[in-house]
Design a protein that fits this description.
The chain is mainly alpha-helical. Helix content is 64%, strand content 11%.
Length: 73
């Protein structure tokens, strides 16, 4: 029984880590677009200003730090 409880606690710990990671990933995925126009539209929806490019994708807001602030609202 002791081994089961220890494994269960470990499973809960790993599960909680995956939730935190998925939350960040989901926020980031909601903020990347293939076109400038889509990023501009999302920027207007979020209430931030401007867009920026990250690798080959467009993102709303003037930078990624600001984007994540608006995505969490």
């Amino acid at each position: 029984m002791h081994i089961f409880l220890r494994n269960f606690k470990f499973f809960i710990f790993l599960f909680s880590l995956s939730l935190n990671f998925n939350s960040y990933s989901h926020a980031h995925m909601r903020g990347t677009f293939l076109s400038e126009e889509d990023a501009e539209n999302r920027s207007l929806e979020l209430g931030c200003e401007g867009i920026h490019k990250n690798q080959d994708k467009w993102m709303p807001c003037k930078n990624e730090k600001e984007l994540h602030i608006y995505l969490r609202k």
